[in-house]
Design brief:
Glutaredoxin; 4 strands; binds FE2/S2 (inorganic) cluster; 2 domains; alpha+beta
Length: 172
């Protein structure tokens, strides 16, 4: 866990997460439902919440860990405001997705799977997204970037950085 993440963990208020768990007591498949709802609320599953969740739902902690590791949709670390996914499936790899990933690592100064210290970007290599005709394919959150080049992705990231650092225009 990074120092950054530790700081966030210390400040995190788990009241809402506990309320969600209490609301799901007795529902069908409460473990997955609570994990989904807590992730929707916090953006990830705070690890400190898991023992409390086990207690509230009266399920073994091991079962919750099992669900967390089985479903790749769950994250136990905070992620950036923008999740940049680079498909590294075969079709995208053949068309140069590794070069895109390498350029993004350089530009964002993070390794694959990491988040920038300002919590703005998470860089994530992913397996085939299922649209191989658009290779090499990237995603920025839900926005598709088809037939991408390293320079094209850097341009998109730079545009977001500029937009995010621009002062908010005052309404007249
Ligand atoms: S290999 Fe990238 S979308 Fe299929």
């Amino acid at each position: 866990m990074t120092a950054n993440t530790q700081e966030q963990e210390q400040e995190l208020d788990l009241t809402r997460a506990c309320e969600i768990a209490e609301e799901e007591v007795g529902s069908q498949g409460p473990v997955i439902r609570v994990l989904q709802r807590v992730q929707a609320e916090y953006g990830y599953i705070p690890p400190d919440f898991l023992p409390e969740m086990a207690e509230i739902l009266e399920v073994p902690l091991a079962r919750i860990f099992g669900a967390l590791t089985f479903y790749s949709q769950f994250y136990t670390e905070p992620r950036g405001k923008y999740v940049v996914k680079v498909c590294v499936g075969t079709a995208c790899h053949v068309q140069g997705s590794k070069n895109i990933l390498d350029r993004l690592k350089e530009t964002l100064e993070v390794d694959a799977g990491e988040t920038t210290p300002d919590m703005m970007f998470t860089l994530e290599p992913v397996a085939c997204i299922g649209s191989c005709g658009l290779a090499p394919l990237c995603l920025i959150n839900t926005e598709t970037a088809a037939h991408m080049t390293p320079a094209g992705m850097v341009e998109k990231v730079n545009a977001i950085q500029e937009r995010e650092s621009a002062p908010v225009a005052e309404e007249s």
